[in-house]
Amino acid sequence: MTIDCVGEYRAKWGEGPIWVRGRLVYVDIEGHRVISIDPGTGDERVWEIGERVGTVVPRVSGGFVIAGDSGFAFLDEESGEVTRIADPEPEKENNRFNDGKCAPDGHFFAGTISLVKKEGRFVSFVA
Predict the structure, then answer these.
(1) Neighbours of 29 (CB within 10 A)
(2) Which is more confident, 124 or 32?
(3) What is the Cα–Cα distance from 98 to 69, expressed in whole angstroms?
(4) Which residue pairs, CB below 8 angstroms and at least 24 apart, start in 75-80?
């Protein structure tokens, strides 16, 4: 078996890969980016988010929903524009969203993690 790397981008902390419309999409948490690659054509897109981003999921209407340091946001696939939606835990300044996915009914679930590992501040789930 041969393993080949695809794409030029090398993540600092790549996580959460999903297949979206024939493309592999994942996040680089510490690189503050969302990455998309078409393994068939080699076409690669990288979006700078401006903060740690822990998860990405596709939207039926196009683009993505992401969650990171400051809560939930939309990512426009064409322009790269990030539109903030909400931060459900603004009082927890040392928490960030870490991972999330959509349920079969379309609801988006995401969990947070403490950056300072204080007891009682580890994980919250928001739908």
Answers:
(1) 25
(2) 32
(3) 9
(4) 75/34, 75/47, 75/49, 77/36, 77/45, 80/47, 80/48
Task: Provide, rounded to the nearest whole percent, the portion of the chain with pLDDT above 70.
Answer: 92
Phi/psi for 35 (5° steps) reads -125, 140
CA 113-65-40 angle, 5° bins: 110
Strand partners, 71: 68
Q: Please choose, from the candidates 49, 43, 41, the residue with its C-alpha nearest in 3D space to the C-alpha of residue 8.
A: 43
Count CB-CB contacts under 10 A for residue 105.
Answer: 5
Summarize pLDDT for 24-46 with one digit per residue, the tens: 999 999 999 999 999 889 999 99
pTM above 0.85, yes or no: yes
Task: Provide the 8-state DSSP code for 125.
Answer: E
**Domains of the chain: residue spans and CATH:** 14-126 (2.120.10.30)
CA-closest candidate to residue 93, choices 116, 72, 66, 73: 116
